[in-house]
């Protein structure tokens, strides 16, 4: 198997990007971007430590959980998780991030590239609290590029079409997977119950 090794070789294989694809990139958030973020309950954060180790993490909450602070700054609350801190450690080492905002049922997405920092600012955390529970921290992203992404990936995958969804019962539970991955002594049912209890206790 041969691999492409240069940008010129890559570009020679593909058609040039259209003028629209190039010009749609914004340097600040306009009204459409802000409205999209306000309606989105889910964002994926791509990061890297700068040494070839990359990570993508999902962040989800009630629609509008990501706050727009100004035209070039957004704030993403960090809720309780597994404390691996892969993305947060990457940000400390290398601030470059890529974000993908989704809205259920909408095939278009919003992409934002920028530079991230982590703050424990108490007033900001209080403003992003849910039911009185503050986020552990806040990821502040300075927007360098923002643009809408077309619907082809979602149309091809039929992601939002329930008729295309595989029945959940055809796939193992997380408890079953973890039992095999970690050789747990607990049964899969016990692990699933422990996970469910954890979800209820530490959602925010």
From TrEMBL:
Coiled coil: none annotated. Residues 30-128 form the Pyridoxamine 5'-phosphate oxidase N-terminal domain. InterPro entries: Pyridox_Oxase_FMN-dep (IPR024029), Pyridox_Oxase_N (IPR011576), Split_barrel_FMN-bd (IPR012349). NCBIfam families: PPOX_FMN_DR2398. Pfam families: PNPOx_N. It comes from Pseudaminobacter soli (ex Zhang et al. 2022). This is Pyridoxamine 5'-phosphate oxidase family protein.
